[in-house]
Design brief:
Helix content is 39%, strand content 16%. By secondary structure, it is α/β, with parallel strands linked by helices. A 5-stranded mixed beta sheet has the order 2-1-3-10-4, sandwiched between helices. The protein has a 5-stranded mixed beta sheet with strand order 7-6-8-5-9, with helices on both faces. Helix 7 runs parallel beside helix 8. It starts with a helix and ends in a 9-residue tail after the last helix.
């Protein structure tokens, strides 16, 4: 073999060996390994209330499935039943309120708020204090000393107290009477058997249609009333990706509702979310986009619950409310 040929062959073999050594000896490119647990199914305790409509829209539109999370709705007929489902671990999440959260977390963090569900706006109320059709109560000052039907130790109680104090009434002028069930409260109000009551939407609208008078509305006291989505702390710790996916689907549903508030009559009827008197005429209110209660809102509820003796110690805002699972804007 000629010297030039031998040299060419030697160089070729050397290059081949070098390439093989490089391929075998080079460290593998680092791969990202997620330390977050995989998504597991979520069980949601759900009341037949207007606030829940984004959940049903997300289900029917396939948004939960598209986000990769399996969601089971567990019906609850009352807040007490909902709370039993959460406390027993039969449900992971729920729609509730800040008073409920303060009660849950009276000793240790049991639940955590991950999103607003509904809030009052200047155009749309969540709660209203109304007077009976034949009463002469037309302003907040007329309510001084008048029994107001409420559910005691609840968000209704808190909202009533805070709104009336903001309207100038003193604590001793605010008198309430326990009427826990909303249909009973509505019936007593419309039959003039109680002179005033605090009702949530859409029952406040039904009361007005029946002749009751709006005396105070949280549309003028936006800081006091809202509903929230909360999850058990255990579910948050073990299924963070599932909760993040759940909220992403809810966000899509909220966008659909806000874009077309008048197209949900069939769903409202199917899921029994508004009284029959309103079907076909009731426009679904706007829902807030991804957001959480402020510390001031939470602290006000905790201070009120302490003053009422409902809790004996303060729970930290950061232990009870988190924005960590909200979708990116």
């Amino acid at each position: 073999m000629k010297p030039a040929a031998r040299l060419t062959r030697f160089i070729f073999i050397l290059c081949l060996v070098s390439a093989t050594i490089a391929a075998c000896g080079a460290p593998a490119a680092p791969t990202s390994v997620s330390t977050e647990p995989p998504i597991t199914p979520l069980r949601i305790a759900i009341l037949p209330i207007l606030d829940a409509i984004p959940f049903y829209v997300a289900r029917d539109a396939g948004y939960f499935t598209a986000q990769g999370v399996e969601v089971e709705f567990i019906p609850a007929s009352s807040a007490a039943e909902r709370d039993q489902l959460i406390a027993s671990g039969q449900a992971d999440g729920m729609i509730n309120d800040l008073v409920s959260v303060a009660l849950y977390n009276r000793t240790d963090p049991q639940v955590q708020v991950v999103r607003f569900m509904r809030v009052a706006t200047p155009d749309i109320s969540v709660y209203r204090v109304l007077s009976s059709p034949n009463s002469q109560i037309l302003s907040a000052k007329d309510l001084a000393g008048v029994e107001i039907g409420i559910s005691q130790g609840s968000i209704i109680d808190y909202v009533t107290d805070q709104m009336l104090k903001s309207e100038g009434l003193t604590a001793d002028q605010i008198v309430t009477v326990a009427v826990p069930k909303i249909p009973d409260r509505l019936s007593l109000l419309l039959s003039d058997k109680i002179q005033a009551a605090t009702l949530p939407e859409p029952f406040a609208t039904v009361a007005e249609l029946g002749g009751a008078h709006t005396v105070v509305s949280d549309a003028n006291h936006l800081e006091v009333s809202n509903s929230v989505i909360s999850f058990r702390k255990a579910a948050i710790d073990t299924n963070p990706a599932g909760i993040r996916a759940f909220l992403a689907a809810v966000e899509q549903a909220v966008a659909d509702i806000n874009a077309n508030p008048n197209q949900w009559s069939a769903l409202l009827a199917k899921e029994n979310l508004v009284p029959k008197d309103l079907l076909g005429t009731y426009a679904v209110p706007a829902f807030p986009t991804a957001s959480i209660p402020t510390q001031a809102q939470y602290d006000a509820v905790v201070e009120w619950a302490l003053a009422r003796g409902l809790i004996t110690q303060k729970s930290a805002y950061t232990a009870s409310v988190t924005s960590a699972f909200l979708p990116e804007p």
